[in-house]
Design goal:
The chain has about 950 residues and is of the alpha/beta class. Among the domains are: about 205-425, Alpha-Beta Complex (Isoleucyl-tRNA Synthetase, domain 2); about 660-825, Isoleucyl-tRNA Synthetase, Domain 1 (Orthogonal Bundle); about 845-920, 2-Layer Sandwich (hypothetical protein PF0899 fold). Strand 24 (about 580), helix 18 and strand 25 form a beta-alpha-beta unit. Helix 21 runs parallel beside helix 25 (about 785-800).
């Protein structure tokens, strides 16, 4: 009776499961890392290495993390881990932005729901609630970030609300005060009526709205030329509420104008037959259409004819205005005036627009105070006292309607309509904003050459992708002075004293140092809790000074983190090697960090900046609850595991926006399985492998040396990709290597040798040596990306190995370095040879697939094809067993042209394949059909010579 030959085959053996079970396994690995103090060991291992510093841009501590957070933190973690495994000491210190509107808004919501006014709450009580709220979310977010596999100094993160941070921030403010860069001025800023504060550009988003648009007459009072007598200049605006703030009308010096007479007015038109209107010639027809009237062109009007003209305000003479609008309205030249839309004239309200303000400052116009912080008109504004631009809830108020009604009553309105257009809104409250001129604190872009220094620093920085340089360069080049003050309660105050005598800030370094010292021991609450005398000291009388309670812009705070994180921690340094955030941070954190550091240190706080896109749904839409397309990272991890998220992030072209959804995640889960199965196959094939089995490369067959060559090629790609932060290329190349070179080719070819050769076979030993190198190398390369799976596979490798293996290798894959690949493994000539061999193999397997499809054969081992090749192919195949490579039982190679009807591939010229069946008997162990296998007989094992020998060596 013959034995069961299955027991003599060396099949893969491992406890590493085919299915990952990541949602359950990953928390166990997190616990393992905590138990072995992985972060502490990483720091110990890297203590003598060159540092790599990736400075963490702080997220707001105000809610659960979203998919955008996951993208950002995963990319940072992959970069940190890959740098650590290439010989750097890559320290990652996570941080949080704990001040400002996002957190304050959450506390205000609580009061609003309770019907309370937060302004009535004592400021220290309110600040304490904000601090507690932020602290709670720091803890929650830290847990969620760690669940993503992000490794860092979670026990010692940085917080902008920490006392030492608040002290450092106020010191940075004081540096600008002392170097002359900080000043107080009145300028138009984007103002939130709902939040009652100025907003930075980075806190603004744009939404489409429908606004009323009006065409308004400004009668000419003083005409420098007779042609203007009796005429009215017409302006167009989409903000009727700004009419009380009008102080001038601007014209373009290069625009051709003319006087037009109304010859006909349709029913309902506000135009008056016979009246004269001054308009840009290119826009007159459009104005006539809007006014439902017909115009006749009269005399041309040059810009010189307009110079010196004085107009009447549309509300002039209103019986209820008490002369409040009886001032002259000059006609002034403005570079911002175009003939693209409107009338060719621009209504100018210096208190409600940047260009209006600049024109007013140039010509010495009054900047009237018309609208209060809550969006209502001040009591002193004629006709409009108490009217609202927007309500406290951010809804349109009655100001537009009152302005239009007053214009109609005055006979000043020529036409009206509605316009849908993009308009600035608060990122937090989603309410529309207004331009409002208020006293604010600014950092000058020109004092101390800040703009020039920042532009030079941009050019000295590596930008990934490169177009990031152009984006931020344009922003800095054209940006106005930096408004750093906010009218809020939670944050670091701009802790200064203003002299009541001259309004100038006190620049006494002793006073400034006392302020910062109190902040360091008591936090910024000291500014509210202590009397002014404690800060001013004995040399000054508090009665002579006003204390500044404006809060500094949170972007200034986060822009200062280099000062109290990079420069103060012993494990970090400045400038950082890398800042890595979303592309919106060109106008946010990158921007503020650049300006703050250039303004105080004359250089950027970073050497390189990497930006990534936003996470969108599978249709490329922005995620929103209303669309029901939000992909929460917590849910993805519960269903798939964090490694699938990590694979999706790195596998996406994150230089653009990243799409994610059910189908994309399923696709990544499939890709993950291929990578996991590669590791599983390697582990199984290495069962019982020891150092005694290792073979030197020089003694290996050509195929094994080709695999080593591919490892050398991949090593160069891995190192170059991580150096350039091109992680998308990295995972693409790794996946293709595993799926194409290994699984579909090398593993397929060598499984026969692995399973069926005798353990002492030189070929099998070479195969196992190469497989061990593959496993050791792939787990290292994959560890930064698939941090959990690589660790799981590595622990299985250690457990399933002998004592010598466990003694030789670290207890975590993350304590390893990328393996050093010997330079002599690279063999381009060998690679070129195997390119030819693989082309021939493709032709053979293509021919056999057809025979398998038509049921001629069930397995390629049933075939013995004849392959017709050219001499170049024959040279490449010399010394190789093409049957083994093609997984057939035999092959005949012929040099010459293939007969008609032979199978051929269009891209493999000169190779033809003619099918033939394998002859002989089937080996019961390896299933090859060979003439040497004895015929079936009682008591006789049908084995080929190789298997007969191997059975004798089976343990």
């Amino acid at each position: 009776m013959t034995r069961d030959l299955k027991d003599t085959v060396f099949l893969p053996r491992t406890d590493f499961p085919m299915r990952g079970g990541l949602p359950k396994k990953e928390p166990e690995l997190l616990a393992h890392w905590a138990a072995i103090d992985l972060y502490g060991k990483l720091r110990q291992d890297g203590a003598e290495r060159a540092p790599f510093v990736l400075h963490d841009g702080p997220p707001y501590a105000n809610g659960n993390i979203h998919i955008g957070h996951a993208v950002n933190k995963i990319l940072k973690d992959v970069v940190i881990r890959s740098q650590q495994m290439q010989g750097r000491n890559a320290v990652y210190v996570p941080g949080w932005d704990c001040h400002g509107l996002p957190i304050e808004w959450k506390i205000e919501e609580k009061y609003r729901k309770a019907g309370k006014d937060k302004d009535e709450v004592p400021v220290l009580q309110f600040r304490a609630e904000c601090r507690n709220f932020a602290a709670e979310w720091v803890g929650i977010q830290a847990t969620e970030f760690r669940r993503l596999g992000v490794e860092g100094d979670w026990q010692n993160p940085y917080l902008t609300m920490a006392f030492d941070a608040e002290s450092a921030i106020v010191r940075e403010i004081h540096k600008f005060l002392l170097n002359g860069g900080l000043y107080k001025g009145a300028k138009p800023v984007m103002w939130s009526v709902v939040e009652k504060t100025a907003l930075a550009e980075a806190e603004v988003e744009y939404q489409d709205v429908t606004s009323p648009m009006i065409w308004v007459r400004f009668p000419v009072v003083t005409a420098p030329t007779p042609v203007l007598n009796g005429a009215a200049v017409v302006i167009w605006t989409t903000t009727p509420w700004t009419m009380p703030g009008n102080r001038a009308v601007a014209y373009g010096e290069d625009i051709p104008y003319a006087v037009y007479t109304v010859t006909e007015a349709q029913e309902g038109s506000l135009a008056k037959v016979g009246e004269k209107l001054i308009l840009a010639q290119a826009l007159a027809e459009g104005v006539a259409t809007s006014a439902k009237a017909t115009f006749a062109k009269g005399a041309d009007v040059a810009a010189a004819d307009l110079n010196g003209a004085i107009l009447a305000h549309p509300f002039r003479g209103h019986p209820e205005a008490n002369g409040g609008y009886d001032y002259p309205v000059p006609l002034l030249p403005g570079d911002h005036v175009t003939s693209d839309a409107g009338t060719g004239f621009v209504h100018t309200a210096p208190g409600h627009g940047a260009e209006d303000f600049d024109l007013g400052r140039k010509f010495g116009l009054e900047v009237p105070r018309t609208v209060d912080a809550d969006g209502s008109y001040y009591a002193h504004v004629p006709l409009f006292a108490g009217a609202r631009v927007y309500t406290p809830e951010g809804k349109p108020g009655d100001a537009n309607g009152k302005s239009i009604s007053a214009l109609i009553a005055q006979g000043a309105l020529l036409a009206k309509g509605n316009l849908k257009h993009s308009y600035p809104h608060s990122w937090r409250s989603k309410a529309p904003l207004i331009f409002r001129t208020t006293p604010q604190w600014f950092i000058s872009m020109d004092t101390n050459d800040l703009r020039a220094r920042a532009l030079a620093a941009i050019d000295e920085t590596q930008w990934v992708p490169p177009q990031g340089r152009n984006r931020i360069h344009a922003m800095v080049e054209s940006r106005p002075d930096w408004c750093i003050s906010r009218q809020r309660a939670w944050g670091v105050p701009i802790a200064l004293f203003l002299s009541k005598a001259d309004g100038q800030p006190l620049k006494d370094e002793g006073v400034l140092n006392r302020i910062a010292s109190f902040f360091e021991t008591e936090g910024a609450d000291a500014w509210y809790n202590r009397p002014a005398a404690d800060f001013l000291g004995p040399d000054y009388d508090p009665a002579d000074f006003d204390q500044v309670f404006d809060i500094v812009d949170v972007w200034f705070e986060s822009g200062s983190t280099h000062a109290f994180v990079l420069e103060r921690r012993n494990d970090l340094s400045s400038p950082a090697d890398l800042y890595l955030e979303g592309s919106d941070q060109h106008r946010g954190w990158f921007h503020s960090s650049l300006l703050e550091s250039c303004g105080t240190r004359g250089r950027a706080p970073f050497k390189a900046v990497l930006t990534h896109g936003f996470a969108l749904d599978e249709q490329g839409r922005k995620m929103s609850k209303s669309l029901g397309n939000v992909v929460a990272p917590q849910q993805v991890m519960e269903e798939y595991g964090a490694d699938i998220l990590r694979l999706w992030v790195v596998g996406s072209d994150y230089s653009e926006d990243l799409k994610v959804g059910k189908e994309i995640l399923k696709s990544n889960a499939d890709l993950y399985r291929r990578l996991r199965n590669t590791l599983r196959y390697l582990l199984g094939a290495l069962a019982d492998f020891t150092e005694a089995e290792r073979v030197e490369p020089a003694a290996m067959p050509d195929l094994e040396r080709w695999v080593l060559h591919r490892l050398a090629e991949m090593d160069a790609i891995v190192r170059q990709s991580t150096k350039e932060y091109d992680l998308h290329r990295l995972i693409t190349e790794l996946h293709n290597f595993c799926a194409v070179d290994l699984s579909a080719f090398y593993f397929d070819v060598r499984k026969d040798s692995l399973y069926c050769d005798a353990p002492t076979s030189a070929r099998r030993r070479a195969v196992r040596t190469v497989l061990e190198r593959l496993f050791v190398t792939l787990t290292a390369w994959l560890a930064p990306i698939l941090c959990f799976t690589a660790e799981e596979a590595w622990l299985a490798f250690l457990v399933e190995g002998d004592d010598a293996r466990r003694a030789a290798w670290p207890e975590s894959v993350h304590l390893r370095q990328f393996p050093d690949i010997p330079a002599d493994w690279r063999n381009d000539a060998l690679a070129a040879r195997w390119t030819v061999v693989r082309d021939v193999r493709r032709a053979v397997t293509g021919a056999l697939e057809l025979k398998r499809a038509d049921k001629t054969i069930g397995s390629s081992l049933q075939a013995h094809p004849t392959v017709y090749v050219q001499e170049a192919h024959q040279a490449a195949l010399a010394g190789l067993d093409l049957a083994e490579i093609s997984i057939t039982s035999g092959i005949t190679v012929m040099v010459g042209a293939a007969p008609e009807g032979a199978f051929a591939l269009a891209d493999v010229a000169g190779v033809g394949v003619v099918f033939g069946p394998a002859e002989g008997e089937k080996c019961e162990r390896c299933w090859r059909i060979l003439p040497e296998v004895p015929a079936a007989a009682e008591g006789v094992e049908q084995l080929c010579h190789r298997c007969d020998d191997a059975v004798g060596h089976h343990v």
